[in-house]
Amino acid sequence: MSDPIRQLQVSAQNAARHLTGAQADRVVVFDLAGRKLLDMAVPVTSVAAGGGGGEEPEAAEAGWSERKGRVYFDGTLVPLSGRKLDLLKVLIREDVADVDQLRPAWKGSVVEVKTIQWTVGELKKSLKELFGDFPGDIIVPTGSGYSLQLR
């Protein structure tokens, strides 16, 4: 991901873990004269705090990434599987995913809209448990589908 703010947040998390073994919760930047230039919260997630199963990609990336069929957020494995994982992959790739774009998560099976809606709701619950500090809904309905808000 090319967003410099997200990259700064991930770098702060990685530096804090490396230096202290703790999770960073703020990024504060000063200039050489000691003036505060930046003071912002770093999204702290329960996934990043220790729920990832110890598997991380080679290099931490800001935001969502996918490697070898697994999904990572800020370089930490997101522990999902099955349809929820397949739906999340579609939502990561698409700004807005409509029902037809979500159907491949059922791998060729005929699936009704209500089933897709229910599974998206279950994915929302799982993501809220993993990213409980994220303000608001992580997945929101749009006029034509669903949008992943946590980027």
What can you see in these coordinates?
The protein has 151 residues and is an alpha+beta fold. The chain has 2 domains: 1-79, no CATH class; 80-151, Winged helix-like DNA-binding domain superfamily/Winged helix DNA-binding domain (Arc Repressor Mutant, subunit A), CATH 1.10.10.10. It is 37% helix and 18% strand. It has helices spanning 4-20, 47-51, 82-93, 99-102, 113-130; strands spanning 26-30, 36-41, 64-67, 70-73, 76-77, 139-141, 146-148. Strands 3-4-5 form a 3-stranded antiparallel sheet. The longest helix has 18 residues, at 113-130.
Largest sheet: 3 strands, antiparallel
Total number of strands:
7
Helix content: 25-40%
What is the count of DSSP helices, taking H or I runs of 4+ residues? 5
Shape: elongated
Indicate how many domains the architecture comprises: 2
**Which series of helices and strands comes N to C?**
HEEHEEEHHHEE
Mean pLDDT: 78
Structural Rg? 17 Å
Strand order of the largest sheet: 3-4-5
Secondary-structure-based class equals: alpha+beta
Low-confidence stretches: 45-58
What's the arrangement of secondary structure elements?
Layout: H1 4-20, E1 26-30, E2 36-41, H2 47-51, E3 64-67, E4 70-73, E5 76-77, H3 82-93, H4 99-102, H5 113-130, E6 139-141, E7 146-148
